[in-house]
Amino acid sequence: MSVIYDFSGKVALVTGAASGMGFAAAKAYADAGAAVMLSDVNQEALNNAVAELSSAKGNVAGFVCNVTDEAQVAALVKHTVDTFGGLDMAYNNAGIQVPAVDAADETAENFDKVNAINLRGVWACMKHELQYMREQGSGSIVNCSSVGGLVGLEKLASYHASKHGVLGMTKSAALEYAERGIRINAVCPGAINTPMVSDMIDKGVITEEFVAKKQPINRLGRPEEVANAVMWLSSDAASFVIGHALAVDGGFTVQ
Questions:
Q1: pTM of the entire structure?
Q2: Choice among 29, 91, 159, 177 that is catalytic
Q3: Which CDD domains does the protein's record reference (predicted)?
């Protein structure tokens, strides 16, 4: 069954929107009638994503942004508001993975890199989105964590630190803004068939069969399945959902 949302007259912002879960969410927002600002650090991929959605939906735009740079994030949010006249929904999706490594051998460079994007980047996005949303007294923010924000897995300590941090920020900010008409939640995807996971499979870091067996549903998730969760959390259907970490993981965290 397909659930239809009506976001006509609303404005959505998606980071990491050139591919994978970000692109799927941007498309879903656009399909629901929202004006959508796509953001990504990859200019060429972003241009292609905007062109693809523009040909089908029209009311979309793109803005190159490195979420580790707060000034760029501030400019992104301002550009969104200037372009579309507001900001009602945001999916802070931009994130990376780093190579699996023994915790005793982790480099400071890797730790700083993954936390700069996955944690500080979400912090910067949420901060500047809230500065606008609190003035209008409404809005919905969905931050992208991971099953790595709910559990620990060996050799991924830095990555899991960043994703646990996202949930801490989400919960704290959600409490702060609940009475101000702004809902903040998070999605926690499991292994999803995205370019990042495909790259790990191509490099032999993991196999698709291995990952599938780790998830009770016995397959990789689809970006659209995460986008569906983002749409629900963004919508009035989730009006009483505050500070929640929604696992979209094929049953991984149930085990």
A1: 0.96
A2: 159
A3: SDR_c
